[in-house]
Fold this sequence. Notes:
Layout: E1 4-9, E2 20-25, E3 33-43, H1 45-52, E4 71-79, E5 91-94, E6 109-113, E7 117-119, H2 126-130, H3 133-145, E8 156-160, H4 165-176, E9 180-185, H5 190-196, E10 200-203, H6 209-216, E11 221-226, E12 240-249, H7 258-267, E13 271-275, H8 282-294, E14 303-307, H9 311-320, E15 326-330
Parallel strand pairs: 8-9, 8-11, 9-10, 11-12, 12-13, 14-15
Antiparallel strand pairs: 1-2, 3-4, 3-6, 3-15, 4-5, 5-7
Amino acid sequence: MIKTMKAAAIKQWGSANEFEIIDVPLPELADEDILVKVAYAGVNPADWKIRAGFLSDFLVNMTFPCVVGLDGAGIVVATGSNAGEFTQGQRVLCATNFFHGKPGAYAEYLVVNKRKVTSIPEHMSFKTAAAIPTAGVTAWQAVFAAEKDALQTGQKVFINGASGGIGSFAVQFAKWAGADVATTCSDTNLSYVISLGSDLPINYKMQNIHTEINKWAPQGVDLIIDAIGAGSLGDVFALLKPGGRLVSIATLNADGDVQRDIAEAEKRGVTKIYASINGEQIGKDLETIVKLMASGKVVSPPVESFELDQVIQAHKKIEDGHVRGKLVLSIFGEMHI
Ligand SMILES: NC(=O)c1ccc[n+]([C@@H]2O[C@H](COP(=O)([O-])OP(=O)(O)OC[C@H]3O[C@@H](n4cnc5c(N)ncnc54)[C@H](OP(=O)(O)O)[C@@H]3O)[C@@H](O)[C@H]2O)c1
């Protein structure tokens, strides 16, 4: 029986250079957990913020060496006593138990609660699957689940930060729901966001966002999804129609004065929702997303893969903030069963 595994870990908070490839104990399975042999681990902006220590207040159960990584795809190798719905050899994509003090996905094996797992459809690669969980579910919940309001056909949606992980999914989800979609990105990503379905691509480096949105939606837009952070849109509430909603994805390092902004929104007759991923919904939302992808209605964003021992390079890239689509780390790669 294997007792240790190779992992990319940090021994203290700090820069990307803190990563070392070391042997760590295999994580233990709780009753509702499954153990997954990791093909690919997703790389998210949260990973570098965790590594740098910005989220240390939330990580009270964490011990060093710390194996980060919130998303994985791989093969089920063991199930807890109350996770019999999953079977050995099954191909799955999942979140991890990282926020419960367990190692994350930058390792040969991960443990995850069964409610944060779903099967990979037949023709989807592990690499594509590993890119979905955090970005896809956060985008899904931002577009559809905020205050349980579904998006209506013909509504106008503005997605700030459309070429990254969340944006790449959010644009497609909103278009699939029948919305008209405006987006921001830099010049290098304009044709990319058009390929995702953007009706109004705005180059945030060259164009005035308010002028462009005002021409496109003179009454204001119904929904804004901001994946960039407070201050990136100036007077953001002026872009909404009366009763409109701003879903601000919690960046945890650029959120401004959230309570003040929520109160200001209310005074202006709009709503600001400060949104974080709802962990309880991950398995269910993942299932819906992969079905949409399997049917071809939503396509995978471009996914760039780094080897596990290139983790420092991957972290420098995600921290720079200009990834198009998603990054993943290859652990066992495309395993064949
Ligand atoms: N709280 C939660 O539960 C949760 C969950 C997921 C993500 N998040 C947070 O949400 C944020 C977005 O995540 P992500 O995965 O989408 O990030 P990402 O993939 O790293 O986003 C990168 C993209 O952002 C674009 N960008 C950078 N600056 C921009 C600007 N000023 N205006 C418009 N676009 C800009 C870049 O486009 P260009 O190269 O063209 O500039 C790039 O394509 C992060 O802060 C992340 O931590 C929070």
